Amino acid sequence: MTSNNTFWRHDTFFGVCEAIGQDFGFNANWLRILFATALLFSPKIVLIAYFGLGAVVLASRLIFPKREARPAAIEARGADNDAEMAELPLAA
């Protein structure tokens, strides 16, 4: 059983970068690289920022859950040009 919630997935570390990437429409790997590079220079600030963003992401996902897309109703009628099918010439 897989969960669509990035916070609870087994393959992410709280899903912070993935969730932010999805929300803002960019590849989460860029944010991961930024955090990893910044972690080398100031681990304390990066960890505080990461867990702070994690709290914001968790709160936003709990307060505003993503709605499931409903399938559109399929109409049974055919296209307008179905009745007027013309014979096409065969290629040589």
TrEMBL record:
Q: Does the keyword Transmembrane apply?
A: yes
Domain Phage shock protein PspC N-terminal span(s) in chain numbering: 11-56
Q: Does the keyword Transmembrane apply?
A: yes
**TM spans, by residue?**
33-60
* Annotated keywords: Membrane, Transmembrane, Transmembrane helix
Q: Which Pfam families match?
A: PspC (PF04024)
Name recorded for this polypeptide: PspC domain-containing protein
- Native species: Rhizorhabdus dicambivorans
